[in-house]
Amino acid sequence: MIPSGIETAMLDSWDYFLHLAIVLTPLFIGASFLVGLAQEYLPPERVEELLRSRDHGSGNVLAAGLGAVTPFCSCSTVPVLAGLLGAGAPTGMAFSFLLASPIVNWIAVLLLFGLFGAGVTVAYVTTALGAAIVGGLVIGTFDLDRYIKDVRITAGGREIATDGGAATAGGCNECSASSANRTHRERVTAAGEGALSFFRDTLPYIVIGIAIGAVIHGAVPAEFLQRIAGPENPLATPMAALAGAPIYVSLSGMLPIAHSLTEAGVPIGTVIAFVIGGAGISIPNLILLNKLFERRLLAIYATTVVATGVTVGVLFNTVFAGLL
What we know:
Blueprint: H1 4-41, H2 44-52, H3 58-69, H4 74-86, H5 91-103, H6 106-116, H7 118-140, E1 152-155, E2 158-161, E3 168-169, H8 172-180, H9 184-219, H10 222-229, H11 236-247, H12 251-263, H13 268-280, H14 283-290, H15 295-317
Antiparallel strand pairs: 1-2, 2-3
Helix pairs in contact: 1-6, 1-9, 2-4, 3-5, 3-7, 4-5, 5-7, 6-7, 6-12, 7-15, 9-12, 11-13, 11-15, 12-13, 13-15
């Protein structure tokens, strides 16, 4: 016989798991479709072309905006970043793109909307983009170019150099021309097929995230979580920004966990810091950036991400607390 308390917790977790699965599955597929469309109409080469001619300031705004709407994961963000730096783009502008890319994207926006509502979503996107712009502007005031490694990265048929020369392509022109000649219907069809493929590939991470969130919701006492990450702990927000990194798998898996934490009474800002820290300084992301940055610049990037998570988290817990 299963004790009644454990049985109740298991049933509660199962109900919560089904609820999140029903809510998130259509949102994730829809977001994946938008990701595919963005890839069709705004490939990495086009992003680099748009940013190369921009200067410090307006370029940071555009870089953060493109980082948000382009659906690049770490494995594709780094080659785009290398292309920008290799073409002579200011380091600060490249940082605005790098900061915005992992924490603001179609999937994050739609899943946030489904889990937390419009108010939290708008506040998150606005503050995260603002932090990426400001972070890039601050980074741009320092002479950090010497901490960028001289490397050549091959991605998508292109050989990209960060040694100050323009990014070169092997076979890229043919690929771009082929993509440009596609009809709108072909692009939409490709985006739909890509959405289903992406959903299948990401499904294990979504299930893991929902399962962890369900266990937290049904089995972990709310008092325990509030004691560790509640408003009484002044270090809760910076600790959350650091704690997200070692357990991060994907943003789609982090948000169900974030939702269950807020359901248990953890302040929304602390949870947001947890999400931003996990997305920005995840172990896979740092490993890829280590190929491009010297350790000092990598440490500066990680510090900037944590500072962004803490700043946005504090804003949510104070300024936005009575509005959301």
